[in-house]
Structure formats: C-alpha cells, structure tokens
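Data availability (excerpt). The following record was deposited with the supplementary files.
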Amino acid sequence: MAQIKIYNAETLGKPLGQYSHIARVKAGELLFISGMLSADGAGNVVGKDDFDAQCTQVFKNIGEALASAGAGWGQIVQFTTYLVHSQDIPKFMEFRKREFPRLFPDGVYPPNTLLMVDRLVQEPFLVEVQTIAAL
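Predicted structure:
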C-alpha cells in the first residue's frame, strides 16, 4: 500500500482552491490515467455546452478508471486540469467545492495544475482532467 502525505508548506501560503501544494509518495506502483473527457462508454459527448454536466461526467470517468485498477479517490496524488474557456474557472472551483468533500472526505485534496488550452480533441469538450494515483 502506498504511503501518501499531502500537505501545504507554510511558506507557500494557502492554496487558491480545493487542492494542496505537495504530495509526497512512497509507492510500489503508480497509476497514470489519461485525460478524461465528458464522454460516455459509447464515446458520446455528455453535457454539450454544459460545463457542470461535463465536470460530473469527467469525474465519473476518473472514478471508473480508478475502480478498474482497484484504486480509490484517496490514492490520487495529482490532477492536471485543462479548460478551454477561462470564464469556466469559477464554475470549476464551484464544482470542486461542492463535490470534493464527498470524494475526499478527509478534506485533503491532491495537488492540481490548471491550464488553459485553445481546444481539446473535439470542439464540444470544455474540460479534461488527467490523474496520477499511487497504489
């Protein structure tokens, strides 16, 4: 079982959202999950033009990927998030404020890097999240 310590260094100040600055991990195995989009099992876009619906599907897909490896939310050590529109940053923060306490009930949130991109693999996609977990 991985040893995961997620924390914030006092000298870095408080994170700007539901994430931590640092994850220190001793693990026998790492799980790298490619960027998840808001596509269902058939590849159809879920939530076209609905950022919140897309976030819900993205995190559902991450949960399914974790479960396929026998892992859970508490084993995530890093997220990288890609957004197409900077106007969606507040929506993304609100989604995390609402959903992360359920996904991470201990209140310890993995580090997350948030990047703005011109577009994702298909025009309708608004958000993509890549995940690393320690097993």
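Summary of structural features: Strands lie at 3-7, 22-26, 30-36, 76-83, 112-116, 127-134.
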